[in-house]
Specification:
16 strands; elongated; alpha/beta
Length: 387
């Protein structure tokens, strides 16, 4: 029986995918797996029983990735599950910023008691006139699941689209419209584009990548959209630039005291993935990831361990070993198994940074003695008999 804990409410359509071999527990200390959305985990005590954490969403800055890796806890996320919801809000942000829709709505509310509001509106609407997005240049920084959807959709809306991503995956490249112009220098986007939207993960290398220097290259009419992470933008520099008229608008999905109410800022309350469809999709993917890992040892969409997939086990047993990424580990494993007269029918070993993961299918039962010998090896983090 596997036990799971939900640190945030998780959509029932996902939780319903757990079989009768799973039970929900109220305390993390009793869980084999945890599902989380936005709850902060950095200060939580992670129990020895915890094998996996699945983030029902893409960002994982609320999870202590290195701490989990050191304890042999696989952290999953759900890339692409909420991509369409974010994509649609990006276009809403573009339209709000290019046409003063918010100002127009506010004017209507302020004049709701005017008996001649329809006539007055005809006189006032010029104050809220804007520009169309068709024919404008859009720069998409980051061509992952969301960036590709935004770029492709923008081409169908008549925009001239430039995409920048030095680390674009093969899958994303195949899905990207041939109408999108691939840019090798992000500065070209800063200089040329009317709209700039950012869709990269928050890393040390991307923190405040939209800074004062980047902003200084932009057109005074530029509109910058941030539906990824607030810390990707130096928002103090952005607010200063807006006040000075150096850029036109900043649209952010991350409210804070710097941007809310500042001139030229349009801020929404983190609505990007807050659709029923996105929450359902994220929950479904997260549960499937946990089940595949607990039941088969397969890792798909991990952010702290390498992806590793050997489908379902058809042999006598399956062994999963998490270890430091150092040479000679496989030889040590096979020596112990060989001395115990256990044949390895199939295996794979993958590495990611400082950590690695070995999955082995064997033709003989795995004894407690063999498992303990494997656990005692230097560099081994966790040994798990999957089957």
């Amino acid at each position: 029986m596997y036990k799971y804990n939900c640190l945030n409410p998780i959509a029932g359509v996902g939780l319903n995918l757990f079989s009768g071999d799973y039970t929900k527990v109220d305390d993390l200390k009793d869980a084999d797996a945890a599902l989380v959305r936005s709850a902060a985990m950095h200060d939580l005590e992670l129990p020895e029983s915890l094998l996996a954490v699945a983030r029902a969403g893409a960002g994982v800055n609320n999870i202590p990735l290195d701490k989990c890796a050191e304890k042999g806890i696989v952290v999953f996320n759900t890339p692409g599950a909420n991509a369409n919801g974010v994509k649609e809000l990006v276009f809403a942000g573009m339209l709000y910023a290019s046409r003063d829709i918010v100002g127009g709505i506010d004017w209507c509310l302020d004049n709701q008691n005017d008996e001649n509001i329809a006539k007055s509106a005809e006189k006032q609407k010029k104050n809220f006139a804007g520009t169309e997005i068709s024919g404008k240049k859009l720069g998409v920084i980051g061509l992952g699941a969301i960036g590709v959807l935004v770029a492709n959709a923008a081409t169908h809306m008549g925009m001239e689209v430039y995409g920048y991503d030095p680390y674009i995956s093969v899958s994303a490249a195949w899905n990207l419209s041939r109408s999108v112009k691939h840019i090798s220098n992000v500065e070209d986007i800063y200089k040329e584009c009317d709209f700039i939207t950012i869709h990269v993960p928050l890393l040390d290398s991307t923190r405040k990548m939209i800074n004062a220097d980047a902003i200084a290259m932009m057109k005074p009419s530029a509109i910058i959209l941030n539906f990824a992470r607030d810390l990707l933008v130096d928002e103090e520099a952005m607010v200063d630039a807006l006040a000075a008229g150096k850029v036109k608008k900043y649209v952010s999905d991350f409210p804070n005291t710097t941007t809310v109410g500042a001139k030229g800022c349009i801020v929404t309350p983190h609505l990007g993935a807050s659709t029923a469809e996105s929450e359902d999709n994220c929950a479904i993917m997260a549960v499937r990831e946990i089940r595949d890992y607990l039941e088969n040892g397969n890792i798909v969409h991990s952010v702290n361990y390498p992806d590793c997939n050997m489908a379902a086990c058809t042999t006598q047993g399956r062994l999963a070993i998490m270890h430091k990424n150092i040479k000679g580990m496989i030889g040590k494993y096979t020596t112990i198994l060989g001395e115990a007269d256990i044949n390895v029918a199939d295996m794979t070993n993958k590495a990611k940074g400082d950590f690695a993961y070995a999955l082995m299918d064997v033709d003989s039962p795995l004894t407690d003695e063999v498992v303990e010998k494997l656990r005692s090896l230097d560099g081994v983090i966790r040994v798990r008999v999957v089957k």
